[in-house]
Design goal:
There is one protein chain. The chain is an all-beta fold. The chain is about 0% helix and about 75% strand. The protein contains two helices and 33 strands. The strands form two sheets. It has a 29-stranded antiparallel sheet that branches. β24 and β25 form a beta hairpin. About 20% of the residues are buried.
């Protein structure tokens, strides 16, 4: 049997910009009549930086802020699974995946403070030199059962999953103020210990069967997420660290979601196809912020709601080369777990971000009209209305007129009108091109009271292109890049245009088993961002740059029987795992 045997791939890559990144990995697969074992393992080191500047005005104060953030991360990741074929219809699979990383994130936050009336006369300068070390680990288990009877058109897929995600973070942060001559005025030295543990349990079952000339689908999913977070702050007093109980607390978030769905699709005639479905989700969640001082204790946040998500679609084949599709769908997007965490994650005592345990999930209603020509060229018009859009806002702090922070909030609604075109072309026998053009009009609306209003309208567009050219002697060249027009990030931060140009060259050797690729990204270093934000009395202009311009060399070698394939499948907790802090 040509589908039995073993194969593998060894790959290595190095990227060099202002700093370097490297990784090496191995993927293997073995299959016989009774079982299939597959897996991969890799190690990597990622170095990077992020330089951000903000010039802001609030409460009659001007703040000139610069952030120099670096990252060095050593990581190990792995994934191994086995499928046992009971017979042609029944399969049992087991999968384990995980990873660990050791991160170092030094950062310098500098803020020059002055009056708006005399912006060049610096009253004082805050310098916070952060030293942050973190250890991350994740481990997940999946047990899968698959029944597939092609003769009767029935299938049943069941997944049982458990995942655990841990993050240990230690930060040392001295906040020192200097006068215009560089003399030390005051200093506040703090340490932060912020461990977090997230456990995810899911059960998922999907059944499909042929019915009335179409396909019926029924399924259910049960999930529970427990996020346990501790935030300990210590202040240095007379050379000793003393825990600050007024700023320390714990936060535990427990979320249970019970979901079920039914779907049906069938052709109405030779040209028209119909599909529809309905999903219901019951959510029970509790967020409990436990203060260390009784007078700071707050009642828990409790959420309990039932949501319905219908969807429907029609596909019409006008002719063999022309088809139309009309689709409507309603979906829910829940906030990431770290976004719900109310702790302050600060670069300095005047610049920080904090989560919001009162966030509601966003509800998206979307309708699309698509047209396909010659099975290749795709065009789409869409209208999207999002209620309680989850977004970031930059605003002043109520307790300190000099401080500002990034927070998470729900917009009242976001409306988007969009157009997209995907166009592949074979210019010559050796030159293939792909173009994608997207444009959208975005309208953000919210009113939080006391003059904190969001009323932003932006027209945004992006053009992406990729050219692949076959050169003599088996060389293949690639030219790609994008140009993005102005847009909006979060609720109110409007950014300017950016663009990038990338080049690549690759060649295969040893009967195409060895592949070597050399590429250069963002050659002109134009993919950074520049923009401004105005909200709740804070006006801020900012820019950001990272190590986007780099040269990459990658090598991969394939060996064994390449016709051996492992089963591709999603586990039950992948949606929940995506909400864990990246």
């Amino acid at each position: 049997d040509k589908s039995h045997g073993a194969n593998g791939t060894v790959n290595a890559a190095h990227s060099q910009g202002q700093v370097g990144r490297s990784n090496i990995g191995f993927t293997g697969n073995y299959r016989n009549r009774n079982f299939n074992t597959y897996g991969n393992i890799g190690v990597g080191r990622r170095n990077g930086f992020n330089d951000i500047t903000f010039n802001s005005t609030q409460n009659g104060i001007r703040l000139q802020e610069t952030n120099q953030m670096k990252r060095a991360s050593d990581a190990l990741y792995y994934r191994i699974g086995t499928d046992y074929f009971i017979n042609k219809k029944h399969t049992i699979g087991f999968l384990i995946s995980g990873g660990i990383s050791d991160d170092s994130n030094p950062a310098i936050n500098q803020i020059k403070l002055s009056s708006i009336g005399t912006p060049n006369q610096i009253d004082s300068t805050l310098i916070a030199e952060n030293e942050t070390e973190s250890d991350r680990d994740r481990l997940s288990y999946n047990l899968n059962y698959r029944f597939d009877d092609r003769k009767s058109g029935q299938s049943l897929n069941i997944d049982l999953d458990y995942g655990t995600f841990g993050n240990e973070v230690e930060r040392f942060q001295p906040n020192r103020y200097f006068n215009e001559n560089g003399n030390l005025l005051t200093e506040n030295i703090s340490s932060f210990s912020t461990p977090s543990d997230i456990d995810i349990y899911t059960f998922k079952a999907d059944y499909e069967a042929e019915l009335l000339g179409g396909k019926l689908g029924i399924g259910t999913k049960l999930s529970q997420v427990i996020s346990d977070n501790t935030f300990l702050v210590s202040d240095e007093i007379n050379g000793e660290n003393v825990q600050n109980d007024a700023r320390s607390n714990t936060f535990k978030y427990d979320e249970k979601v019970y979901a079920g769905y039914v779907s049906f699709n069938r052709p109405i005639n030779e040209k028209l196809n119909f599909a529809a479905g309905l999903r219901a989700e019951q959510t029970d969640a509790t967020g409990n912020l436990q203060a260390f001082l009784v007078n700071l204790q707050e009642p828990p946040v409790e959420l309990n709601y039932l949501s319905w998500f219908p969807n429907a679609g029609l596909t019409y084949s006008v002719s063999p080369q022309h088809s139309l599709a009309l689709n409507y769908g309603r979906r829910i997007n829940r906030p990431d777990y770290n976004v719900l965490n109310p702790f302050n994650n600060q670069l300095s005592e005047l610049s920080y971000q904090k989560g919001n345990p009162f966030l509601s999930p966003e509800i998206v209603n979307n309708i699309e009209l698509g047209y396909t020509y010659k099975y290749r060229y795709n065009f789409k018009l869409a209208y999207s209305k999002t209620i309680d859009q989850i977004t970031r806002l930059i605003g002043p702090d109520d307790s300190d007129p000099r401080a500002n922070f990034i927070s998470w909030a729900n917009l009242a609604d976001q409306t988007i009108y969009s157009f997209n075109a995907s166009l592949p072309f074979a210019i010559t026998k050796k030159w293939n091109s792909f173009f994608n053009f997207s444009a959208s009009y975005i309208d953000n609306q919210a009113d939080y009271g006391d003059g904190a209003v969001v009323d932003v309208q932006v027209f945004s567009y992006t053009l992406y292109q990729q050219h692949t050219i076959n050169l003599p002697n088996k060389f293949v060249a690639e030219i790609s890049g994008y140009f993005a027009g102005p847009g909006v990030w979060g609720g109110v931060f409007e950014y300017e245009e950016s663009w990038s140009l990338n080049l690549g060259l690759q060649r295969r050797f040893l009967n195409d088993q060895l592949n070597i690729k050399l590429s250069a990204n963002d050659i002109f270093y134009e993919s950074g961002w520049d923009g401004f934000s105005e909200f709740n009395g804070l006006f801020s202009e900012g820019s950001g740059r990272w190590d986007s311009r780099n040269v990459n060399l990658s090598v991969s070698y394939n060996f064994g029987n390449q016709q051996v394939k492992s089963r591709k499948r999603k586990t039950g907790l992948e949606d929940e795992a995506e909400r864990v802090e990246k």
